[in-house]
Specification:
Elements (H helix, E strand, L loop, with lengths): L18 H17 L8 H8 L8 H24 L1 H20 L4 H29 L3 H32 L4 H4 L1 H15 L13 H24 L4 H21 L9 H5 L1 H31 L4 H6 L2 H18 L6 H18 L8 H28 L7 H38 L6 H34 L5 H15 L1
Pfam family, one: MFS_1
Subcellular location: Cell membrane
Protein name: MFS transporter
Length: about 500
């Protein structure tokens, strides 16, 4: 990646001369945040053994992060709009690095859970700042397509990269390095931020919508917590139902208040826009399916096929490569020429086909013949989807709303991941139990039947993931009507400038 020459006709006269180096800094920070949604998954058995976690409590290593991240994103986005995106970007980096170091040095489960929650809280400040900085740095349609192609590739491949890095670090160093690794990344990104990132002055005279913060963050936290607890307690549990009902009620009150607040946390015009609403829903459904894929394949590789942590992580490399190619080489090149849904709808169809291919898994499946084709299709489909979603959501947004718009997109990802993990895991466990009841007639062959039951549960859940991808394609087709940015960007940019 090289910066355009001074006379580059694609760069406007007032374009930031350091914008491409700024993209490197933003990409590093975003990659760090996304990696941490999955990097500790493969390390979890080692951490559980060393710190003495119980089976019922080990989920909090994952849940503490997603709960804080998903619940505080809207607040983080609005803070970025109020005090400045570069400032909150730096605060998020420093806090994330410190929390990561704390988690790596954990001496007990409680300390690790607390550190993961702190990571999630600072990620909620960092992530919307990163995306909004990208949106306000690249305004030329051609350059914007390239920048969001790279950013979309990171979003699509970061979770899979987390498995790869987590597996290698756990096997060859120690599980603690899955957390320590964030510190040097954050230091490099922080140093670069001070030299190459620029931001317009923060809004003056603006106030934080405190009732909106309490209602919105509490509602999202209750939903994320409820879906997380459903995995272990069951969907019919009164505590789970109470959390979900409270979450819905709080979010309904949040919407009611946002329509009346003088300075709302989430201006409703952002989600009332048809294209953005379609992108938010598409992203949530796509992530629901992909998080299910990550979960089941991780256990399939290690438990059924007997892969080591490092080999399990490396098995996701083709998925990562396909996502990067789909986002940068296909979507990044075509977005300025075709409408976003011309990429997103086929992308979701490819993703659904990839999931359907993986439903053929058995206890004796081979990687090259049975798993690799599904990974390539799913990765390519997600690459085609991520990049136009990011570009469409942030196009034409007033500068003072760019942070909260980015936060809303990140929220749809985190909530989708939590819902998908809980929902598909419940489907898999229920299907496994039903298979055991139907096929386990005596003690003979118990181990083999148990393995077959586990794989059967995974395949049923993967069918559901395929259905979610198809539904995302339908949502995209019906709701996202934006034209190609090459034609639509000038008009939207003019509106954004007049509002901002």
């Amino acid at each position: 990646m090289t910066a355009p020459r001074t006379g580059d006709p694609g760069a406007s006269a007032d374009a930031d001369p350091h914008r491409w180096w700024g993209l490197v800094v933003i990409a590093l920070a975003q990659l760090m945040v996304i990696l941490d949604s999955t990097i500790v998954n493969i390390a979890l058995p080692s951490a559980q053994s060393e710190l003495g976690m119980s089976d019922s409590n080990r989920q909090w290593v994952i849940t503490a992060y997603t709960l804080a991240f998903g619940g505080l994103l809207l607040l983080g986005g609005r803070i970025a709009d109020l005090i400045g995106r570069r400032r909150t970007f730096a605060i998020g980096l420093v806090g994330f690095a410190a929390a990561s170091a704390l988690g790596g040095a954990a001496t007990g489960p409680g300390m690790l859970f607390g550190a993961r929650a702190l990571q999630g809280a600072f990620a909620a400040v960092l992530a919307p700042s990163a995306l909004s900085l990208l949106a306000t740095t690249f305004t030329d349609p051609r350059e914007r397509g390239k920048a969001f192609g790279i950013f979309g590739a990171l979003a699509g491949s970061g979770s899979a990269l987390g498995f790869i890095v987590g597996g290698l670090l756990t096997e060859y160093l120690d599980w603690r390095w899955c957390l320590y690794v964030n510190t040097p990344i954050a230091i490099v990104a922080l140093t670069g931020a001070f030299f190459v990132l620029r931001d317009r002055p923060a809004r003056t005279g603006a106030r934080l919508d405190v009732p909106g913060v309490l209602l919105g963050c509490s509602g999202l936290a209750a939903l994320v917590y409820g879906f997380s607890e459903a995995e272990s307690r069951g969907w019919a549990d009164l505590f789970v139902l109470g959390l979900l009902a409270a979450g819905v009620a709080l979010l309904a009150a949040f919407v009611w208040w946002q329509a009346r607040a003088p300075m709302p946390l989430l201006p409703l015009h952002i989600v009332k826009d048809r294209d953005r609403a379609g992108c938010f829903l598409t992203m949530m459904l796509a992530i629901m399916g992909m998080f299910g894929l990550f979960l089941f394949l991780t256990y399939y590789f290690q438990v059924v096929l007997g892969y080591s942590p490092a080999r399990s992580g490396l098995a996701f490399v083709p998925l990562t490569a396909a996502t990067v190619i789909g986002s940068t080489q296909i979507a990044g090149r075509l977005l300025q020429h075709v409408p976003p849904r011309a990429l997103m709808a086929p992308g979701m169809l490819l993703g659904a086909c990839g999931m359907a291919v993986l439903t053929r898994l058995t206890v004796d499946s081979t990687y090259v013949g049975d798993i690799l084709p599904g990974l390539l299709l799913a990765g390519l489909g997600m690459g085609l989807t991520y990049m136009p979603v990011f570009a469409t959501v942030t196009a034409g947004v007033a500068r003072q709303d760019s942070g909260v718009t980015s936060a809303t997109l990140n929220t749809s990802q985190q909530v989708g991941g939590s819902i998908g993990t809980a929902l598909l895991n419940t489907v898999a466990n229920t299907s496994t139990a039903a298979y055991l009841t139907a096929h386990l007639t005596d003690s003979a062959g118990t181990a083999e039947v148990a393995r077959e039951a586990v794989v059967h549960g995974y395949t049923v859940a993967l069918w559901c993931a395929s259905g979610l991808m198809l539904l995302a394609g339908v949502v995209t087709t019906l709701l996202v009507t934006a034209r190609a940015p090459k034609h639509a960007a000038p008009a939207k940019a003019a509106v954004a400038e007049s509002v901002g």
